[in-house]
Amino acid sequence: MSAAGTLPPDERRLGAGAPIQDTRGDKIALACIYTALALFCLAILYPIVYVLSASVSDTHKVSAGQVWLWPVGFTLDAYKAIFDYDAIVSSFGNSVFYAVAGALVATVLTLLAAYPLSRKGLPGKGIIMAAFVFTMMFSGGLIPTYLVVDQLGLLNTRWAMILPTALAVWNVIITRTYFMVTIPEELVEAGKVDGCSDFGFFWRIVLPLSKPIIAVNLLFYAVGQWNSFFNALIYLTNEHLFPLQVVLRQILIQSKVDPSQMPDTSKLAQLKELQQQLKYSLIVIGMIPPLLVYPFVQKHFVKGAMIGSLKG
Amino acid sequence: MTTTETDARSSVRSAAHKRTRVAKSRVGLGLRIRRNWQLYAMLALPLIWLAVFAYWPMYGVIIAFKDYNVVSGIWGSPWAGMKYFERFVESYQFWKLIKNTIYLHVYELVATFPLPILLALFLNTVRKKWFSRSAQLITYAPHFISTVVVVGLVVVLTNPNTGVANKFIGLFGFGPVDIMGDAGMFRHIYVWSGAWQTMGFAAIIYLAALTSVPPELHEAAIVDGASRLRRMWHIDLPAIVPVAVILLILNIGSILSVGFEKVLLMQNNLNLDTAEVIDTYVYKIGLASAVPQFSYATAIGLFRSVIGLVLLVLANTFARRFAKSSLW
Q: Any one Gene Ontology biological process term (chain B) (predicted)?
């Protein structure tokens, strides 16, 4: 019998500074939980690590199935091939632009919508909020939205990537909840007494107090823009405006490699050989930017999700 | 005696009530609106956006009841009544689309809905901080990878010639299989790659709900000799249920609109039998086809949205009555 089992339960808990002892059943349960979590983490990590390894391994070794976990025959050829393929380089630049511009526009819109809707006693607030929330449940659908974008003359412009999906109502709700929790009514009253206008209060008091939620919004929108491909698929036909995701889709999923994108024809043969390799390195390139940002902002993301869930 | 007392008290109360009401109404609605004009000015831009990109398309939905042509525009095109809805319901694609859409969504729901709950319960039980931190960091990560890359990852790993998945089953003497080209495999690949991507992040909301469990409950249960699993079952799980119900309602509301982008990305000529869902069909006949049928595609889209809305309302009513938690 284990030592823990012999002690009465309250002594186990109250023993001065002694760690809480588990019963044998609890120990087994805990061991199972740790194992399950570890296995799950491995299942998440394996494909990512494999692709990383394959992207820096010798093509033939990968095709022959010699790569299982670590790189075999280290080479960076696949990454060099990426830089020789014009469409990837230019679309990478486009994606950066869409992510930055899209995040800025969307965050400004979100803050402008969320702050007034967080204020108590604003006439018409309920109706406006309902107008926002209703769009989460019902939308015009694909074709009518497309026709609107067409009528506005936005087809084949950079705006088509940024404007139609600029505002996410979910973010408005989260941001509004954040304002309601962090900006007390007394502060608003005090501002009024001191003769501060609503604009001034928003600019000088609210924004400086809201850096975490601004960061969450910027990052949500930037990652969303970086990862989105459907807007580009339906609104853009001009290849010079394509974001990275569309080019990734062509190469990774449709296996379309366009020889005209290779200015140096001597490398064409090499590209054919590297095509499979290119896929691994491309997956890495597509994965890296959001994953690089993510550990730094994980806390904020979690906080954002939690604030949202508070209100439900 | 008591009645007069309460009468007196209530009359005092109602008088006080009246006074505050008078005080409030002294600031008239017009004045309150004028006083807040700057707040309305801030709302202007978002509201314009909402009108243009959310409500204008809703108006555009009427082309589902018209024979839309570009020259006459939305209003000028002749009415077509329910023609397009009838055509859709009677088309040979109808039952296949409905079946594929519902099957895919229900499979996804049943298979992946409990996973984040389990993950959250497990993470919440782990006492070693470094372990739960790194487990969270790892399991959230795939959420930030784009759908295109996830599908690309699946395609590359399951490639019949070079993919590691086929090398693996090759070890056991099975021949290479073209997993992506197999209509029977499509749903499994879709659902389980989705679980891989979303499970960790979906657990966040449950972890948030678990932080509201007072530690005293656990302490009391320990004193009473409750095992770890029992505490998980009787203390942690009930804290999660309200959130889970709400997420379930939302899921049921979107039963006809499965992850459209991902389905589209995973489609190829070989798996269309199971991989064609309502939304991808709308896209194909509406935008991707050489002769776009705007009205027909809009009608199908509207059909789907209306059913989704009805299901959402039904699920919500049901949950309010039986689970005591609901969206509204």
A: transmembrane transport
Q: Which residues contact B33 (CB under 8 A, 6 or more apart)?
A: A123, A124, B40
- B43: which chain A residues are within 8 Å (Cβ-Cβ)? 112-113, 116-117, 128
Domain, as residue range, for A242: 78-311
- Same domain for B155 and B232: yes
Buried b (16+ CB within 10 A) or exposed e, A75-108: bebbbebbebbebbebbbebbbbbbebbbebbbe
Quote the minimal CA–CA distance from A267 to chain B in Å. 22
Chain A interface test: which of B56, B156, B168, B248 (most A C-beta within 10 Å): B156
Chain centroid, CA B289 distance in Å: 28
- For the segment B216-251, what is each residue's pLDDT rounded down to a tens digit? 888 888 888 888 888 888 888 888 888 888 888 878
What's the predicted TM-score (pTM) here? 0.81
Mutation site, B47, B132, B153, interface A, largest A CB count within 10 A: B153
Domain final position from A41, A58, A75: A75
Q: Residue B38's domain spans which residues? A: 2-69
How close, in Å, is residue A158 to chain B by CA atoms?
16
The tally of domains found in chain A comes to 2
Where a domain ends, among A38, A58, A75? Answer: A75
What is this model's ipTM? 0.81
For residue B83, the number of C-alpha atoms closer than 13 Å in the C-beta half-sphere is 13
Number of domains composing chain B: 2
